[in-house]
Every structure is written in C-alpha cells, then in structure tokens.
Design goal:
Length: 220
C-alpha cells in the first residue's frame, strides 16, 4: 500500500479499482495457445495488490509457476461514461508500467474447469506498479510506445503499443461503456509475448524511454 495515494501534476488520486486487459497482443495469445477475442477480456485486482518499485515481492505458496507480464498502465484523471474514442485520451492523467503477476499453473487449472481466475491473478503483491508520469499528448505517443521486461539482466519481453489488438483509445471507450470511469481508476493494458517464470532471488526490471525503469527483487 506504500504506492498510494498517487500524485500527478500536484493532483492527488486514490485508486479504488484496477482494471486488467487480457489477450491484447497477438503473439502473447499464440504463445499460450489461445484465440484472439472479439472484445477486450477484462478482469480486476484489488488495490491492496499494488507493490511500489523496490519493494520485495514474496512468491505465493499456493502455486509453482509465477510468471511476469509487463504492461503499459494508465491512470484515469476524470469521470466519464460512454466516452467516444476521439475523446478517450483526454481522460488519461498519467502513464507508467506495471507487472501483472500470474500463477500460470493455477490459471491453467482454473481455465480447464471453467472457474474464475482470482486465485491465479489477484493474490497478495500481484500488481507491481511503477511511478506515474503525467500524460502529455504532445510528447507521449500512446500508439507507438515501446517497453520491455528483463529478469536478472536478461531481456524477456519487448512490446510496443502499436501491436495492441484493442488500442488504448478503444479500451477506454469500451471500459467506459461497461463502467463509469472515475478519477484514480488504473488500467493495465495487456502484455506482449515472452512471459516467463520468476524465482526466489531474481530481480525483475521493466522499462520504457517514456516512463523510465522500475525494479523489484523476488524473495522466498
């Protein structure tokens, strides 16, 4: 909880919801053997799952395969419902990177039985989150934003928002059709291919020229 509240450009935000988008990069869908969705796949995690940069991450005991998934993350700055795509970017207050930590073995078991994903996605410390940078449409191109994830210095994931199946404008438009978006809402926008296992003693680094680098050590 040390990541909260969030301050961007002198404005204070207290998040209450974290939206996550699954299956938003074609190569990641392929590496997990899935099929492309017709609409965004949405799930949530509790705000208490946020982990600040540098804070040690404890590996959960109820699974064996803890995977990293680096994502571009948005902070919503104003309330809106039914937001048109043409106006969508004006609702963004900040941008950063984060990790959607996933217990892949647990997720696979739950998928096979048609059960919800919470045990594999919404455990303690499952949402490491970088520091938000104020979003400026004149200097930040959200349709061409590169980002990466490395473990112990070895590059694991390289992504770019231009490869999203559902671009950021479309995500905000669709989410605001299902929920009334509110200031402080956080949106993880999906992960590219290259997801892999994290082990005790590892260090995971996520980075973009736009946001800078954020790191976390893994403890037992």
């Amino acid at each position: 909880m040390s990541a909260l509240p969030i301050t961007v450009n002198g404005q204070l935000f207290t998040p209450q919801r974290i939206f996550f988008i699954g299956k938003n990069y074609d190569e990641h869908i392929k590496e997990l053997g899935g099929t492309a969705p017709e609409e965004p796949v949405v799930f949530m995690k509790p705000v208490c799952s946020i982990v600040s940069p540098g804070e040690p991450i404890s590996i959960p005991q109820h699974g064996k395969l803890l995977h990293h998934e680096v994502e571009v993350v948005l902070l919503i700055g104003k309330e809106g419902q039914g937001v048109p795509e043409v106006d969508a970017l004006s609702y963004i207050a900040g941008i950063t990177l984060g990790l959607d930590l996933t217990l892949r073995d647990i997720q696979s078991r739950l998928k096979k039985t048609g059960l919800p994903w919470e045990l594999s996605k919404s455990f303690e410390q499952s949402a490491p989150l970088g520091h938000f940078k104020a979003y400026d449409s004149n200097s930040i191109d959200l349709e061409n934003l590169p980002f990466s994830c490395s473990v112990n210095g070895d590059l694991r994931q390289q992504g770019n928002t231009r490869y999203m199946l559902f671009p950021i404008r479309n995500l905000i438009h669709r989410l605001s059709g299902w929920w009334r978006l509110r200031p402080g809402d956080i949106i993880f926008t999906g992960t590219p291919s290259g997801v892999g296992q994290l082990n005790s003693g590892d260090q995971v680094d996520i980075e973009s020229p736009v946001t800078g680098r954020f790191s976390w050590p893994l403890s037992s």
